[in-house]
Recover the amino acids of this structure.
């Protein structure tokens, strides 16, 4: 009870600002529902100036922790706006003092925002991850790489304590073979998809089984062809590779506006 009352007092004295999610091209006052960050159900709405609008919600002027719930709220708000508008996502944790400051930002950086919106018009971000299925890829390697298979069969005739060095060698050979398989598949996938995209970003992978983690900026008229190509890979490799294909999502990999609100 004491802790709750202290938090309530802190909330009451905390200065309120406007959390900025994204920039759109619009002069229309709009509300998108109670999607504001922070769990208070603050309304997501537009602040307009000279043909541009910032999508904002009320928020304490604080630094939100980079937790999943906060990051998700930031993304969900932008996704809702994306249903109707081309968006320029703004960096997580961008909070202006008030609506007047938001309008000033839109006025001063008007041309920069307009140019970026024109560049993003008619495009969407699609993400693709490809991961080897563990139980299949190692079996596939044993079948494909004869030298590994022969050595593995050979050491089964001897007790483990006498084959330590051979087992270590097999481990190194399997690791090298897996790396080769990853690079071969990665190149084939990227070579096919990059030609269909306006831009791409290949992100770091994690774990030995992940082949690819990439984002593609694709024109809407190219999306069906892009979808078809991904499906072709799924048909060709689906027995040994798990594909995770996601779209449409905010173009964070290609636009992430940094607005230093203190400069305005």
């Amino acid at each position: 009870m004491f802790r709750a009352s202290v938090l309530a007092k802190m909330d009451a004295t905390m200065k309120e600002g406007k959390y900025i999610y994204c920039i759109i091209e619009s002069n229309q006052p709009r509300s998108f529902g109670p999607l504001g960050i922070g769990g208070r159900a603050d309304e997501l709405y537009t602040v307009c100036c000279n043909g541009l609008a910032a999508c904002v919600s009320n928020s304490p002027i604080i630094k939100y922790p980079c937790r999943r719930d906060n990051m998700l709220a930031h993304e969900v708000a932008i996704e809702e706006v994306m249903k109707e508008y081309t968006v320029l996502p703004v960096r997580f944790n961008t909070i202006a003092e008030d609506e007047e400051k938001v309008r000033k930002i839109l006025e001063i950086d008007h041309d920069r925002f307009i140019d970026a919106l024109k560049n993003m018009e008619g495009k969407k971000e699609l993400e693709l991850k490809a991961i080897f299925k563990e139980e299949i890829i190692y079996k596939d390697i044993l079948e494909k790489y004869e030298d590994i298979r022969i050595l593995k069969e050979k050491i089964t005739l001897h007790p483990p304590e006498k084959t330590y060095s051979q087992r270590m060698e097999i481990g190194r050979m399997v690791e090298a073979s897996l790396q080769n398989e990853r690079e071969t598949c990665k190149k084939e996938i990227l070579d096919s998809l990059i030609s269909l995209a306006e831009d791409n970003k290949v992100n770091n992978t994690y774990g030995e089984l992940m082949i690819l983690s990439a984002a593609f900026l694709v024109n809407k008229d190219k999306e069906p062809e892009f979808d078809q190509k991904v499906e072709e890979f799924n048909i060709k490799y689906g027995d040994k590779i798990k594909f995770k294909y996601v779209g449409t999502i905010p173009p964070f990999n290609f636009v992430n506006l940094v607005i230093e609100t203190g400069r305005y």
Remarks:
- The chain is about 45% helix and 25% strand.
- The beta strands are 16-25, 31-33, 44-49, 52-60, 88-89, 95-96, 123-132, 199-202, 210-219, 241-249.
- Residues 1-10 have pLDDT under 50 and may be disordered.
